[in-house]
Description:
By secondary structure, this protein is mainly α. The chain has one domain: Mitochondrial carrier fold (Alpha/alpha barrel). The chain has 13 helices and no strands. The protein has helices at 5-9, 38-55, 57-66, 80-91, 100-129, 136-165, 174-185, 194-219, 227-244, 246-257, 260-265, 275-290, 295-332. The longest helix has 38 residues, at 295-332. It starts with a helix and ends with a helix. Mean pLDDT is 82; it is low at 1-34.
Amino acid sequence: MELSSERVLAPLEMSQTVSQGGQPIDGDYESLPPHVSVTTHMTAGAVAGVLEHTVMYPVDSVKTRMQSLQPEPNAQYRGVYEALRRIIRTEGFLRPLRGLNITMMGAGPAHALYFACYERVKHSLSGVIKSGGNSHLANGVAGSVATVLHDAVMNPAEVVKQRMQMYKSPYRGLWDCVCKVTRTEGAGAFYRSYSTQLTMNIPFQAVHFITYETMQEWLNPHRHYHPGTHIVSGAAAGAISAAITTPLDVCKTLLNTQENVALSSMNISGHLSGMANTFRTVYKLGGVAAFFKGVQARVIYQMPSTAIAWSVYEFFKYFLTKQEARPASRNGK
């Protein structure tokens, strides 16, 4: 089915939204009129987050394995496609999807908070800094604040997910992993990488949002609903942010998985903790190159994932805002 380009490029018909006083008000779906509820952003964010994490999940599984600092011979991969093909052939068709259930459970509420917080903080700061105009500082700060909330929800899910993605994972399933980690390492294990995750995700999201908003200024200056620009802007933002923050992602993976072979080779007893210790361990095990293990898989995962997240989020924001605007239009007649 083909879509008319005029329909795709058309702005949301909110420019003629009628206020309670009967006067038309200017704006489109980006202008966040007062009647748009937080629920709109939370619903759009939740759907976008779940899709973002699920569509490219097999590549994320490959990334976790490729970031292993001392992988077993059967878990050494030359590239993303070769890794996926071998995992499916030797471990089963569904093996790359292991851990997807906990990811979906965490992604919905985490992204609902993430996008709702981002929109509110961005527009509050933009009103102060640039009198309502687009501000890169406001975008960066909003993205960083939203990340703190997002990671507080998502970090435990990340720990379980990555342990289940590992080669020869000892866990039978989600609850088996949660119970064993809690019993052997304590509840704190689920937040052992939180500081590293924040250190990674705050610059990731700051670069991500600044890149996205800058691309939108170039490609879609009038901020109409235009799926193509949201996809391109999201993909560019995801790729740049992912590449820049890969060293921190490698450290996060080591903290989450507590890779036994690597830690044993360094004579580390107990559990590795602390970002500084993790940086030293990664460097001793593989030098500078170790900090970029899995960068290809990370970029391949983030480009379409971020493009999906933004395009779905912008569509739902467009759709839900339009639905909320109809009662106001009818009441104004």
